[in-house]
Structure formats: structure tokens, C-alpha cells
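Good morning,

Attaching, inline, the C-alpha cells for the sequence recovery test we're adding to the shared suite. The designed sequence is right after.
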């Protein structure tokens, strides 16, 4: 990728015990949101820590905006929220942000207005005057997001940024990250909350046992087929056979959250295009079935994630 802001080539960390990650090559462009996925123990946090300069690689090389990872020049451009965040509980939220701003080389006169704005953006507001020991886990995570953005970085590395937040908080963080993208910021998102990744990210990579299994745009990894579900009454297995033979389509009976009862079932059809659903509806009605409901099935990233790892061993957090 030309002019990649994150450029990792063969990046490797070998701990000597089978953990770590191997030969990871990834390029991320400016303004892109990149989702880094994988089960517990896959090596995701190890890779992120190498990029932000907290772990020295065993092999390979990587650059942040053209600067070698770990260098002072590279660190000037990044913000980082670790998965395991800890802040001085005797300080207020404002004081924690002031400390991080000073560590970034910012003067108090420069950081003071941005700190107030950041506290409002992450949903802490006037509670920034309270000591951290009075913050919930969700509030501390919001504070961590503010710390990651205090130096107005070009690239923001987020390791499980919404894990402690309730659904409202998750939505607020998602909207904030979308705003940052619109400002041209690059976001590297390591998360188990696949709904957030699906809604926010342009591309994703799947890591397992330290190796990249798959990478691509969300649409590419989902390989989204055109699927429709029909809730029909008066069903018999013979009619399913007839439909398959006379349409040439892939049509199967499926389980559904609203359980099938008696001759009332759900059918799922894989179509070549959306126009075929009208034809299929007519065939169903012509055969004397009652058509109660029809809706299009949208492929989901969590289904792809489970499917991609089913039957494949992974280290897991307790292995």
C-alpha cells in the first residue's frame, strides 16, 4: 500500500513458549479504521504492543508514518489505550490527563483547553474533578480514551476500548471514533465486540495462534451471499423437494428464534439476485402454502468469526 501510515513487514515476537505472533505483514492507510480480531491468546495484544513500542520485536520491521516503531519520532504520532489500564486513583481525571499531556511534551497552557474538551467528548464532563478512585470501570475506560487522544495523535491504537461500557456507552464511543475517522485519524481497533468492528472498520484481519489467517475488507471476508428467509405455513418435506427441483436454488429448512411449530416453518433460500425473491414467493403461494413473512438475511461478522475458527485449535487464555 502506497503511503501507509502503519507498515508492518514480517513482524514477529517469539517468547519461546509457542506464544507471541509470527511474520505479520499489514499496511494501513491514513483515515482507515482497521479491525484486528482473534480469540483469546491469539497474539493480538503482543502485536499492538510492538507497534506502539512497548515490546521489542524478535524479527521483521515496522514503521509508523515512515518512522521505525519504538522511536521517539514514531511515538509522537500515536495514542494508545491498553486492554489493562491503570490510573493513579489519588488523582482527579483532569490531573491524570494533565500528567499524560506533560509526558507528551505539551505545556499546561496548551493542554488545558483540550483536556476540558476531551472530558466532555468521552462523557466524563464535570466528573473530571473527581478522584479516579471514585470512578467505575466504565468511567476509567472513558478516561483512558481521553488519555489516548490528549496529544491529538494521527494514529489511535485501541485494545478493547468498550469492554467495560454499557450499550449506551459503547454507542457513544463508536460515534466518537466515527468522528475521529471523519477528521482523517487512523484507528487500529483490537476488539471482541464484533458488532462495533463491523459498523466502524473498513478492513479486518483474523489472527489465530500468532498467524494471520485472513485479511480483507468486511465485505470480502463475509463473502456475502444473497439469502432470504420465508416463514410459511402448510409445509411438508415433499414441497421443499419440489421447490428445489423446480427452481434450481439452494433452499433449506432452518431453525429460527421464533421456533417452527407443526407445519409452520422457516425456509432459507440462496438467490442469484434480489429479483428472484418475488418469483419464489409466487411459487410458494401457488403450491398452497401460506406466506407469513419474508426478510433478507444479512451476514454478520460474528458468524464469520465463529465459522472461520470452528474446528481449528487455538491457544486460548488458559491453554
Amino acid at each position: 500500500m502506497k503511503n501507509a501510515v502503519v507498515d508492518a513487514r514480517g513482524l514477529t515476537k517469539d517468547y519461546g513458549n509457542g506464544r507471541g505472533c509470527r511474520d505479520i505483514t499489514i499496511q494501513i492507510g491514513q483515515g482507515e479504521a482497521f479491525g484486528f480480531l482473534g480469540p483469546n491468546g491469539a497474539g493480538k495484544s503482543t502485536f499492538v504492543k510492538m507497534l506502539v513500542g512497548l515490546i521489542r520485536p524478535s524479527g521483521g520491521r515496522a514503521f509508523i508514518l515512515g518512522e521505525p516503531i519504538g522511536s521517539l519520532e514514531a511515538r509522537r504520532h500515536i495514542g494508545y489505550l491498553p486492554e489493562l489500564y491503570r490510573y493513579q486513583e489519588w488523582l482527579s481525571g483532569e490531573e491524570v490527563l494533565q500528567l499524560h499531556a506533560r509526558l507528551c511534551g505539551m505545556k499546561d497552557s496548551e493542554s488545558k483547553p483540550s483536556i476540558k474538551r476531551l472530558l466532555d467528548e468521552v462523557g466524563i464532563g464535570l466528573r473530571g474533578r473527581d478522584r479516579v478512585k471514585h470512578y467505575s470501570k466504565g468511567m476509567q475506560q472513558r478516561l483512558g480514551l481521553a488519555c489516548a487522544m490528549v496529544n491529538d495523535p494521527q494514529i489511535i491504537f485501541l485494545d478493547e476500548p468498550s469492554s467495560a461500557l454499557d450499550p449506551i456507552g459503547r454507542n457513544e464511543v463508536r460515534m466518537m471514533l466515527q468522528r475521529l475517522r471523519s477528521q482523517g485519524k487512523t484507528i487500529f481497533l483490537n476488539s471482541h465486540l464484533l458488532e462495533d468492528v463491523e459498523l466502524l472498520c473498513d478492513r479486518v484481519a483474523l489472527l489465530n495462534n500468532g498467524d494471520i489467517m485472513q485479511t480483507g475488507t468486511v465485505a470480502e471476508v463475509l463473502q456475502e451471499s444473497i439469502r432470504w428467509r420465508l416463514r410459511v405455513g402448510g409445509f411438508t418435506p415433499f414441497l421443499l423437494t419440489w421447490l428445489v427441483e423446480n427452481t434450481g436454488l439452494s433452499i433449506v429448512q432452518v431453525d429460527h428464534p421464533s421456533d417452527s411449530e407443526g407445519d409452520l416453518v422457516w425456509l432459507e433460500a440462496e438467490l442469484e439476485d434480489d429479483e428472484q425473491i418475488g418469483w419464489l414467493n409466487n411459487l410458494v403461494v401457488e403450491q398452497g402454502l401460506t406466506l407469513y413473512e419474508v426478510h433478507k438475511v444479512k451476514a454478520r461478522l460474528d458468524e464469520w468469526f465463529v465459522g472461520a475458527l470452528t474446528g481449528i485449535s487455538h491457544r486460548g487464555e488458559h491453554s
